[in-house]
Specification:
Layout (H helix, E strand, L loop, with lengths): L2 H11 L3 E3 L10 E9 L9 E2 L5 E10 L3 E15 L6 E15 L4 H5 L6 E2 L4 E3 L1 H11 L38 H7 L7
Parallel strand pairs: 6-7
Antiparallel strand pairs: 1-8, 2-4, 3-5, 4-5, 5-6
Length: 191
């Protein structure tokens, strides 16, 4: 089938959905899909995510197998977030492998697995969005860094350690001496 037909089919059912009638139920038949789908809300974690509406590039092969449709390939998206140490913006590309069996209704898979164990073909349609979202979520760092050696921020003044002098310190006063300093002024060493 042509790419124009693939584009028309995607527009009819949505970019995240594959119409399995294009493949047929004969084991061994397949169809390649290349499409761009907008990321819905929730494609990420608190500190890093695929921004809502950002295109997710899908390059997939859907193969008819005895039990259903096996979908495999890659999904690529642009990530945006913040470094957990210094809060600088992070922007990078994420590519994940996708491989999922979507079982036909009334197949042996229905009997041998729970409903939440295997994705299902529903009304001859396969919804790729939950599978791609899960693959991306599992690949995201829970604590993203702008660089592996990021030193973060000074806990006293909030300035990035990378921008501070090597001898940067803050005067700390022992709380037991704070009352004397307030009364007489000066530092601990001067009193």
């Amino acid at each position: 089938m042509s790419q124009n037909h693939d584009a028309r089919a995607a527009q009819q059912v949505g970019p995240w959905v594959i119409d399995t009638r294009e493949i047929g139920h004969r084991a061994g038949s397949s169809h390649a899909y290349r499409r761009s789908a907008p990321a819905p809300a929730g494609f990420g974690l608190d500190m890093i995510k695929v921004p809502e509406g950002e295109p997710v590039e899908l390059d997939l092969l859907a193969e008819s197998v005895v039990e259903g449709v096996l979908v495999s390939g890659t999904a690529v998206a642009h990530l945006a977030g913040e470094c957990v140490r210094c809060l600088d913006p992070i922007s990078e590309e994420l590519e994940v492998e996708v491989r999922e069996l979507f079982a036909y209704p009334d197949s042996a898979t229905d009997v041998t697995s729970d409903d939440d164990e295997v994705e299902r073909v529903v009304d001859d349609l396969v919804d790729l969005e939950p599978v791609v979202r899960d693959a991306m979520l599992l690949s995201l760092p829970s604590a993203p860094l702008c660089s592996p050696d990021c030193q973060g921020l000074c806990s006293e003044c909030g300035v990035k350690w990378a921008e501070l002098a090597p001898d940067h310190t803050h005067e700390t006063i022992d709380p037991r001496w704070a009352a004397l300093q307030e009364r007489f002024g000066g530092t601990e060493e001067e009193n």
